[in-house]
Amino acid sequence: MVDLTKGEEGKGYRFELVASKDGQTYVRFVAANGEPMVRSETYKSRSSAKNCIKSIKERAAKAETVDEAQ
C-alpha cells in the first residue's frame, strides 16, 4: 500500500490511498505499468479506506475468475 496523502511513492501493482478534492480519501488499485485499474468510493476517514483495502485482499483470493477473452 502506498499512501499518496503522505507523499509516498511506489512501483508495481499496488493499492494507493488518495486524497479527493473535498478532503476525503479513496483507494485506487494501480497496475505495474502505472495505469489505474480500479477506484473506490470516497471515505470520510483514512481508516475506512484502509479497511477497503483489507477487505479486497481478503475477498479477492476467493473470488471466481471469468476469462472473457475470445
Could you characterize the architecture of this molecule?
- By secondary structure, this protein is of the alpha+beta class.
- The chain is built from one helix and four strands.
- The chain has one helix spanning 46-60; strands spanning 2-3, 14-19, 25-30, 36-43.
- A four-stranded mixed beta sheet has the order 1-2-3-4, covered by helices on one side.
- Strand 2 and strand 3 form a beta hairpin.
- The longest helix has 15 residues, at 46-60.
- It is globular, with a radius of gyration of 13 Å.
- The model has no long low-confidence stretch (mean pLDDT 93).
Mean pLDDT: 93
Report the end-to-end length measured between terminal Cα atoms.
33 Å
Q: What general outline do the C-alpha atoms trace?
A: globular
How much of the sequence is in beta strands? 25-35%
Based on CA atoms alone, the radius of gyration comes out at: 13 Å
Order of helices and strands: EEEEH
Major sheet details: 4 strands, mixed
SS content category: alpha+beta
Annotation keywords:
31% strand; four-stranded mixed β-sheet; 70 residues; 1 helix; globular; alpha+beta; 4 strands
Q: TL;DR?
A:
This protein is α+β, with helices and mostly antiparallel strands.
Layout of strands and helices, then pairs:
Layout: E1 2-3, E2 14-19, E3 25-30, E4 36-43, H1 46-60
Parallel strand pairs: 1-2
Antiparallel strand pairs: 2-3, 3-4
